[in-house]
Design goal:
Blueprint (H helix, E strand, L loop, with lengths): L1 H16 L5 H5 L12 H28 L10 E2 L9 E9 L3 H5 L2 E24 L9 E3 L2 E3 L2 E4 L9 H4 L1 H8 L3 E2 L7 E8 L4 E8 L4 E4 L5 E5 L5 E6 L7 E6 L5 E5 L2 E8 H11 L1 H7 L3 H14 L2 E3 H5 L7 E24 L1 E3 L6 E7 L5 E7 L6 E5 L4 E3 L2 E6 L3 E6 L13 H34 L2
Parallel strand pairs: 1-19, 2-20, 10-16
Antiparallel strand pairs: 2-3, 3-17, 4-5, 4-17, 6-7, 6-17, 8-13, 8-15, 9-12, 9-14, 10-13, 11-12, 18-19, 19-24, 20-23, 21-24, 22-23
């Protein structure tokens, strides 16, 4: 009995000495999550805040959309007379006629330009313009009343410079050095290879001198690789989908090392003859699309300047949805001062989504000289709403002067464009509701995250 009493007493003593774990230890996970650099708890808090910010942003979009004032600049400005010799142009005047309602509806205005130039000797002038390779404008230029002939030089529509290609004068001037003439010399002689496939696969191996541009037929299923000796190998699949393939090498035949696993014929001809033949074979298309053969000559001149290879379609079928910086070039002999005059079109662009509509026009000046502007308005947009230079109004005519670019907005009333950004009652209610919802979402997320952090720190 004594022994049993002793055991019971020891058992009770052990129970009294056992200390229950603290409350915070029982509530925490079996590992200390706070020792990790980025726990699931912290990730949840961050995600909660980010989600709230996204919700707020989406909710505030109607406010931003309703309040925004469109600041789109004219994509393709109209350019004034340019000369690489900056001192050759003394000054100019631009008379802009917006009076033709039909032409105005097409986004065009007539511009009559007159520039005073000076120098001694031969001077080259340019009238740059943005356009696709179709519908190139015809310019009639006179010097002191006498008509002179110039030539269209085509730019490369495949190159992209972003907005600087239309707004930065230095970039525009640089791009003008990379235009190519629309005439092709008869002295460029080459060799045309005509291949006739005999199997569904065809292999062509060519090794060229570095001074050789070339044109070749292309299909969707063709791969190009390089051989150990530096030659290029064209491997055609589905070759029988065509009756024949053409390769034209614009260089001396001694520069060409050509072989193929099928029969082929060789013919010597000029590059101009080759292009004329291709143009005439699809003349109906070119006439319908208003594509002059000069743009194909210009592309060939670019090919020759870089000694590059070019597919047949790339040469003969330009992308008409692309716009290039082209130029009308002419040279004159100067002995003192002279007056250069010409007529051209000026672009008009709808500005923003105003009702009634607002229009924007930009005239860029590529030289450091003064230009006087006279604008003849129409009934559709008789007011200049704002401009980069002060203007004077005299009836339906405005005048201004500038030594740089001249930008102006046109409208049907003197307050056009202002009403477009006044919110109606419905828009105000929508903006308030969405703004409140977005604000509450952010506040709830932040408060929830703060309380969560404080709670866990308290029981850490």
């Amino acid at each position: 009995m004594k022994k049993s009493a002793t055991l019971t007493k020891n058992a009770n003593t052990v129970k009294k000495n056992v200390i229950p774990p603290p409350l915070r230890e029982r509530q925490l996970p079996p590992y200390n999550v706070y020792n990790k650099p980025l726990t699931k708890i912290k990730i949840n808090i961050i995600c909660r805040i980010i989600s709230a910010i996204i919700i707020c942003t989406v909710c505030l979009c109607p406010v931003a959309y309703a309040e925004q004032i469109t600041s789109d600049t004219l994509l393709y400005p109209t350019l004034g007379l340019y000369c690489a010799d900056a001192d050759s142009i003394i000054g100019g005047s631009e008379r802009i006629y917006l009076t033709d309602e039909e032409q105005f509806a097409r986004g065009k205005a007539i511009k009559q330009s007159q520039y005073t130039v000076s120098g001694n000797g031969t001077a080259v002038f340019e009238i740059p313009f943005y356009s696709s390779y179709a519908g190139i404008p015809t310019l009639n230029v006179t010097v002191d009343g006498k008509k002179i002939c110039g030539e269209v030089w085509y730019g490369n529509y495949e190159s992209s410079w972003g907005n600087s290609a239309y707004s930065d004068n230095s970039v525009i001037k640089y791009r003008l050095t990379y235009t190519y003439p629309s005439t092709l010399a008869d002295s460029v002689v080459g060799t045309l290879y005509t291949l006739t496939p005999v199997a569904d696969t065809m292999s062509v191996k060519v090794k060229l001198n570095d001074k050789c541009g070339y044109i070749y037929d292309d299909i969707n299923r063709v791969s190009v690789s390089s051989a150990a000796d530096g030659a290029q190998i064209w491997q055609y699949d589905n070759a029988l989908s065509r009756n024949c393939y053409h390769y034209f090498f614009a260089c001396d035949s001694s520069y060409i090392d050509f072989s193929a696993d099928c029969g082929y014929k060789m013919q010597t001809m000029t590059l101009k003859e080759f292009i004329d033949r291709g143009y005439d074979s699809d003349l109906e298309y070119y006439k319908g699309a208003d594509i002059d053969i000069g743009c194909i000559y210009a592309t060939a001149n670019r090919m020759l300047s870089y000694n590059m290879g070019m597919t047949y379609n790339r040469l003969f079928y330009p992308n008409l949805s692309k716009v290039a910086l082209n130029s009308y070039k002419f040279s004159i002999e100067l002995q003192g001062t002279a007056i250069i005059s010409y007529s051209s079109e000026m672009s008009i662009q709808v500005y923003g989504s105003y009702d009634p509509p607002v229009y924007i026009m930009v005239h860029k000046q590529l030289g450091d000289y003064k230009t006087d502007y006279t604008l003849f308005m129409n009934s559709r947009a008789p007011y200049i709403l704002t401009s980069s230079e002060p203007v004077e109004k005299n009836g339906t005519t405005y005048t201004a002067s500038s030594t740089g670019d001249f930008l102006f907005l046109l409208g049907s009333s003197e307050t056009a464009g202002i009403q477009a950004h006044k919110l109606n009652k419905k828009q105000v209610i929508i903006c308030i509701v969405f703004g409140i919802v977005g604000g509450i979402a952010v506040i709830v997320a932040i408060v929830s995250a703060v309380l969560d952090v404080r709670y866990r720190r308290r029981y850490k």
